[in-house]
Design goal:
With 216 residues, the protein is an all-beta fold. It has no helices and 20 strands. The chain folds into two domains: 5-69, no CATH class; 79-214, Jelly Rolls, CATH 2.60.120.40. It comes from Owenweeksia hongkongensis (strain DSM 17368 / CIP 108786 / JCM 12287 / NRRL B-23963 / UST20020801).
């Protein structure tokens, strides 16, 4: 099906300003973007042309005009990498993980390592990858689980049932990678659960990490 871009003739009720920065303002003398509009716009006429080279599309295929915006690669995407170690996880008690260090964080306002809560700055798809490794060696069939929660509710989980007999070279771990769709303001956190019989601790920070990546 042939696709078109419809160029619009925009009628402004006020005035147009071109700032020294090159920004153009409609209805404002201090434009803050390449095109900054204060007030309303009216689409007076449409003309169909091939739109294959454009990123802004007005599509009337359904007799409605819609605007499709494609994010520039220059926009800041969420990239977070955090580590921790020594956290206590009580027996049979789901425990939210807080992170002792953050190596990468491209959107500081979205991440609070002290609470372990990530808050999506805008709607999008996010890849969450994490690994938790427990320090003590445990007996057979001891349960260790890592959980990703969305808005406080379980979203994805992975478990480990150690059958090593508690040998000195074995340290139970849980690894998980998932993709989640978040609206602006929704949250993600990582939780640990274990059923060894007593409080356990996480191994050192090389073995306990969280990666959050916003997909373009």
């Amino acid at each position: 099906m042939k696709k078109y871009l419809f160029t619009a003739v925009l009628i402004a009720a006020s005035f147009i300003t071109v700032a020294q920065s090159g920004n153009v303002g409609v209805g404002t003398t201090a434009p803050q973007a390449k095109l900054h509009v204060e007030g309303s716009l009216r689409v007076d006429s449409l003309k169909a042309i091939d739109y294959s080279k454009y990123n802004l599309v007005l599509d009337s295929a359904s007799k409605k005009v819609a605007i499709q915006l494609i994010r520039s690669n220059r926009d800041t995407l969420v990239r977070i990498y955090a580590k921790t170690g020594g956290n206590s996880v009580p027996h049979l008690t789901a425990t939210r993980i807080v992170w002792s260090g953050t190596d990468i964080n491209t959107v500081p306002s979205a991440w609070d390592a002290s609470t372990g809560i990530f808050t999506a700055p805008h709607k999008g798809f996010y890849r969450i990858s994490t690994n938790l490794t427990f320090n003590p060696n445990t007996g057979n069939n001891a349960q260790h689980t890592v959980i990703v929660r969305k808005n406080g509710a379980d979203f994805a989980a992975a478990g480990n049932f150690d059958s090593s007999g508690g040998g000195s070279i074995y340290k139970p771990a849980g690894s998980l990678s998932t993709m989640v769709e978040l609206n602006a303001g929704e949250t993600v956190s990582v939780w640990a659960f274990q059923g060894v019989g007593s409080t356990q601790t996480l191994y050192n920070s090389v073995w306990n990490f969280l990666s959050i990546e916003e997909l373009p």
